[in-house]
């Protein structure tokens, strides 16, 4: 009996929809493939909602190399068109590092626009978008955003809203900071030596490398970075999977889709079928899905209940008392009315002129 009750509750459609889950989040961590060379694969994202500076900037475009971790922080405006963003991309990224093979980003409107797709199609660059409501796909760029926001908050305390003037120094500091995943700074990973800073922290000397030695040294650096990244990815995956559970679906399985991340007001036409997911991409991370234990065809179909807004029509049946209410410049006649389906104790005071217009039969019966 107890087992049958537990099975019935587990298959209950209402319980599956509304009950909170107390299990680990679904979906193990599948790390992205490590790039083979510098600036072949990059990640990008926008930090929006910043205080507007005197130059009109209110956002930051963050671009990160997925191999060396070198980042560029570009101040932008939310009103920039796709053509303006393309100009910045060419001048700040392509002119310095060449055309990448792959770009990882979220599904922001700037990255999913027709112009942006055609631009990278012409340059033979593949666009990889993260799953809907799953920013962890490009965790490296999200983590870079957190570090940059912390640095800007520290600068804002001293410099106020002029954060765009501090942005080049934040980029320089980030690119010369030690990265645990590659066991060196992004600058050293990109150029093969440590940067000589204005503070002369270490004053590294120039390496006297010629001919094949330069190529051999660069290849050695990249091999070391790749090995360090593989070790770091394995370590990160073990940490992440410890707090997650594996969940797989097969073709034809029925699932529940979590739509709670959808924010904002949705407007629909008065007539027609509501489609709250019409503007959402049809690919979802496994953490946004929940397996349906009972096939919809096997569920009991309950007849729909047609409930009317008003179960009865309310109308006045008797005037219990009359009175006059004096205002500043006129006298208003009031009537204490007993309504149908209500007792005399629930009678209300109404204006006589309104009652004569809406219920003339009430006064005809009294006369």
Automatic annotation (TrEMBL):
Gene3D superfamilies: Ribonuclease H-like superfamily/Ribonuclease H (3.30.420.10). SUPFAM superfamilies: Chromo domain-like, Ribonuclease H-like. Residues 31-194 form the Integrase catalytic domain. It comes from the Eukaryota. Signal peptide: none annotated. One of its GO terms (molecular function) is nucleic acid binding. GO terms for biological process: DNA integration. PANTHER family: CHROMO DOMAIN-CONTAINING PROTEIN-RELATED, YALI0A06105P. This is Integrase catalytic domain-containing protein. The lineage of its organism: Eukaryota, Viridiplantae, Streptophyta, Embryophyta, Tracheophyta.
């Amino acid at each position: 009996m107890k087992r049958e009750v537990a099975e019935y509750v587990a298959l209950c459609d209402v319980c599956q929809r509304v009950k909170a889950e107390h299990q680990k989040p679904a979906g193990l961590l599948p790390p992205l493939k490590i790039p083979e060379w510098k600036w072949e694969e990059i990640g990008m994202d926008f930090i929006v909602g910043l205080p507007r500076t005197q130059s009109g900037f209110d956002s930051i475009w963050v671009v990160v190399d997925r191999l060396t971790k070198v980042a560029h922080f570009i101040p932008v405006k939310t009103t920039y068109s796709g053509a303006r963003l393309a100009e910045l991309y060419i001048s700040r990224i392509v002119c310095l590092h060449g055309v990448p093979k792959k770009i990882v980003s979220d599904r922001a409107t700037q990255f999913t626009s027709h112009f942006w797709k055609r631009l990278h199609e012409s340059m033979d660059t593949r666009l990889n978008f993260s799953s809907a409501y799953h920013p962890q796909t490009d965790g490296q760029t999200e983590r870079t955003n957190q570090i940059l926001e912390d640095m800007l908050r520290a600068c804002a305390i001293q410099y106020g809203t002029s954060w765009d003037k501090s942005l080049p120094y934040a980029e320089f500091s980030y690119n010369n900071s030690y990265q645990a995943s590659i066991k060196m700074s992004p600058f050293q990973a990109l150029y093969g030596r440590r940067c000589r800073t204005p503070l002369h922290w270490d004053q590294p000397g120039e390496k006297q490398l010629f001919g094949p030695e330069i190529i051999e040294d660069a290849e050695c650096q990249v091999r070391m970075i790749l090995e360090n990244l593989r070790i770091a990815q394995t370590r990160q995956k073990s940490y992440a999977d410890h707090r997650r559970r594996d969940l797989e679906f097969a073709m034809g399985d029925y699932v529940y889709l979590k739509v709670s991340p959808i924010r904002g007001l949705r407007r629909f036409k008065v007539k027609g079928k509501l489609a709250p997911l019409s503007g959402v991409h049809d690919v979802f991370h496994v953490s946004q899905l929940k397996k349906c234990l009972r096939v919809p065809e096997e569920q009991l179909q309950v007849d729909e209940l047609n409930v009317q807004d008003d179960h009865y029509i309310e109308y006045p049946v008797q005037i219990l008392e009359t009175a006059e209410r004096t205002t500043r410049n006129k006298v208003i006649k009031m009537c204490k009315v007993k309504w149908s389906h209500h007792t005399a104790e629930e009678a209300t005071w109404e204006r006589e002129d309104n009652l004569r217009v809406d219920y003339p039969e009430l006064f005809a019966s009294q006369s």
